[in-house]
Amino acid sequence: MENANAILLCLIISFISLPSPLTSLPTCEFPAIFNLGDSNSDTGGLSAAFGQAPYPNGITHFHHPAGRYCDGRLIIDFIAEDLGLPYLSAYLDSMASNFSHGANFATAGSTIRPQNTTRSQSGYSPISLDVQYVQYSDFHQRSPVLRKQGGVFEKLLPMEDSFSRALYTFDIGQNDLTAGYKLNMTTDQVKAYVPDVLHQFSNVVKGIYEQGGRSFWVHNTGPVGCLPYSLDLFPITAAQINKYGCATPFNEVAHFFNCKLKDVVFQLRKDLPLAAITYVDVYSLKYSLFTQAKKLGFEDPLITCCGHGGKYNFNSKRRCGSKIIENGKEIVIANACKDPSVKVIWDGIHFTEAANRWMFKQLVNGSFSDPPIPLKMACHRMDH
Ligand SMILES: *[C@@H]1O[C@H](CO)[C@@H](O)[C@H](O)[C@H]1NC(C)=O
Ligand SMILES: *[C@@H]1O[C@H](CO)[C@@H](O)[C@H](O)[C@H]1NC(C)=O
Ligand SMILES: *[C@@H]1O[C@H](CO)[C@@H](O)[C@H](O)[C@H]1NC(C)=O
Ligand SMILES: *[C@@H]1O[C@H](CO)[C@@H](O)[C@H](O)[C@H]1NC(C)=O
């Protein structure tokens, strides 16, 4: 029953009208994806800037570390596959990147607001959403100039009209919520700054729209109170743990954020008359993985696959891939579990490829979206 009021409020403002039968609409043929976000959608940004996500990240799909904090693919990878596009290269990655069909500005640990702390102090990425937006703008302005030089640039950079026809995807906000708790703020104090966080988010969407972006795909934030990372890091009383083992204050804050995010999306639709903005309820999908794990084919959803010890097989000092030296030999002490395909949580913070695939399958047809249109239709504005 956590925050039933907030959920109700969200329902009231999210009126949806689908004027034409969906089947009569053409599919969108997105030529590119531009993604902004945090680790939920980082395909190599933080790794390029601060060192590779270590083995055993990547073991399931890529069979080597691939810049993702996951054993395999992220939701953004399944989105790219579904749209017939290559996986997104990280904008910050200068090795073998190919941006002809998009670029990824996300980095693990990114927040919407700049944090005024260094990465070593707080763990948050300095590549916050405002920086990602600057990088996107630079990329957008310089691409056509470089492309005109021809040769390899023509094969590495998007066509000029790709910027207006692209799908702009967002998955960010979770770290803004944990940032307050890390500063020992109360839930009310965290809630109090959420409007400022979302105001800054909204400005970025407006900026991209001004530069010609039209199709936006916005993931809401997940149940951060169900992550072993939160359960391990923050002080939580027994009364705050629900029957699924999740910490209710953090989930309540995520709900609050999502509710306000929905308001912001609603307002953006009014302010940006040519924008098609799809709000995707990833929260509900992630939460189902904890509440209905067994039914969905998963085991012990709160137990980390790749970790080391403790109640959740998670130790923040011995994260996935941590090594020790024993008898002069390096050994990985936080290794992968036997079967990541039945696990929900990969490393205490991020979901496994199996969980990401299941979520993608649920959301691709629009049944978790507002308006409820499939991914391939997300260029169509539905409310006029
Ligand atoms: C960082 O500092 C600036 C300037 O004092 C302030 O406006 C901003 O809100 C701060 N950011 C956070 C996340 O506290
Ligand atoms: C970049 O990827 C596109 C699409 O896969 C491909 O057509 C193009 O040749 C690639 N560019 C280079 C330089 O390999
Ligand atoms: C938060 O509280 C803990 C425990 O009292 C303390 O160790 C830590 O320094 C505090 N952090 C900040 C940023 O005030
Ligand atoms: C969307 O796809 C999911 C998973 O395949 C399925 O269970 C659901 O019924 C579909 N919903 C609609 C509206 O087609």
TrEMBL record:
Q: Which InterPro entries does the entry link to? A: GDSL (IPR001087), SGNH_hydro_sf (IPR036514), SGNH_plant_lipase-like (IPR035669)
This chain's source organism reads Dipteronia dyeriana
Protein family per UniProt: Belongs to the 'GDSL' lipolytic enzyme family.
* Name of the protein in its database record: Alpha-L-fucosidase
The record's CDD domains line, in alphabetical order, gives:
SGNH_plant_lipase_like
| Ranges in a coiled coil | none
Task: Check the UniProt entry and state the signal peptide residues, or none.
Answer: 1-24
Tell me the Pfam families matching this sequence: Lipase_GDSL
